Amino acid sequence: MTFQEQIQQGIPSVLPQPKPYETDINHAPKRKEILSAEEKKLAVRNALRYFDAKHHEVLAKEFRDELETYGRIYMYRLRPDYRMYARPISEYPGKSEQAKAIMLMIQNNLDYAVAQHPHELITYGGNGAVFQNWAQYLLTMKYLSEMTDEQTLVMYSGHPMGLFPSHKEAPRVVITNGMVIPNYSKPDDWEKFNALGVSQYGQMTAGSYMYIGPQGIVHGTTITVLNGFRKIKKSPGGHLFVTSGLGGMSGAQPKAGNIAGCVTVCAEVNPKITHIRHSQGWINEIIENIDELVPRVKKALENKEVVSIAYLGNVVDVWERFDQENLHIDLGSDQTSLHNPWAGGYYPTGYTFDESNELMANDPEKFKAEVQKTLRRHAAAINKHTAKGTYFFDYGNAFLLEASRAGADVMAENGIDFKYPSYVQDIMGPMCFDYGFGPFRWVCTSGKPEDLQKTDEIASKILEEMSKTAPVEIQQQMQDNIQWIKGAQENKLVVGSQARILYADAEGRIRIAEAFNQAIAKGEIGYVVLGRDHHDVSGTDSPYRETSNIYDGSRFTADMAIHNVIGDSFRGATWVSIHNGGGVGWGEVINGGFGMVLDGSKEASRRLESMLFWDVNNGISRRSWARNDGAIFAIKRAMEAQPLLKVTLPNKVDESLLDF
Questions:
Q1: Who has the most CB within 10 Å: 185, 423, 453, 551?
Q2: 291, part of any domain
Q3: Is residue 654 part of a domain?
């Protein structure tokens, strides 16, 4: 069968032969035992409903074995034989160009060069899934190949509920992930519902088909590191950034350190992913012996090298040894997947990677105790460095949250706040999000590098034009992004699809998108998919990350993210998504995303202006109501540019009136 025929058949009527478990693939760890005997039967029963009854006898035992062996039913037998990658849009079967673009984005999320655990359909973060099993993938792709522009596909946590009649102005796909009742949002609830096959953790851009490989986080991390050094009034050259994690998202850190121009040490316990990142060029060197690491770092600092070093081992050992050696760390952070601490997101000291995975599956209570013990040591070592002048920030991965739950010394004197700021609270929020700058991204559906280069040139030209008249308050953001986009080709950031990201405000996003649409209309480039990370101005309500610089008491509310997705859906988005649990953990955040296909039409021009304006200014409005000065400036500027925009502004209060 051709690729197109395989897509169109969906779940095959004749079962393919079982596939061997490929040991050279980076697999998800075994999930812990959490279902009762009756619930295991329910999980198998749920999985079998995708198949004709004639296959149930064979598959029932197979699925039960998968559940026992891996803690989940992935349906490995149904994994396609074709190579998984983002093909040019013309190679996908279908009646809707928008649907074809979505198929391209799904396959990009599952590309072996992009996905963290591709056979388990997990893109990044240890559990950020596109689908729960391969039957869902096959059925979804079939539906998309059949869809017309008068239908909408409804997705329930990876499960394609079906195609429903709609209209051309409606989204082609509406996605929810993990949207469980709030009282059932504890980590063990996720484990249980996911094992039953009824819910999944979509992370942010994994379950919304908008991941573009590590490039997305490289840019955000570069901006963060640059502004971190500005905050401590140091240039990156000859100074040290220490962090950990080389997974799907965190693997971007060493590349960002190189672009910023510092010495980066990034620790990782997983040998396979460490060597993958090295082969991809995201890190320069791998060191496995801490006795070799110390002199290598000292030499790099002395020579002011721009170098990224992966330490294959536990980051706690790095913090502790650098303290003993009095090796000064300028910037420190952590980007392990602590939203998922008990299932492979963070590993304890004193165990090898394989020993940890064994302990995680067979003695989860002891594993949890060892992780919490390590978190206490981790925090204690950081505290020693910050006492010597290190600037440490939480990277929004729930490090401080889980460390506090472990009893680590991370709380401020008031007993309410953490002693270290979130990077959004201290850097990205006041410097970028409040002014409307966030991770605008695009994908060239032709798959041609020359199309991407053309879009880079278009974006660069527009940003340079805008910077000539931009107010002083946003000049730094403009210049950082001009520098980024000009160096994008040279930094070889593409992994998977021909994609790009930069931080832009509403005006920048609209002007760049419209220029793309005009270039498509002229036949200069193929169709373009617009999107963003959910980690943005208005897509996400996350009290310890995206909304951590909201101080009016509303940071625990999620109105903004919900309104964002509702508004995007009727203003022209091609697909929309809303998730529980991206980035910082299940039950800790609500986040929404979108995708929009530009086809060169007048309709696309109308939609992009309407939707992108709302997508950004919804968040600026909320931030201005929280009395954030940058956001008040930004929303007033937006109202001047668009007379139909009328936003309620806060009145400042004389603080002396509150002394009672």
A1: 423
A2: yes
A3: no
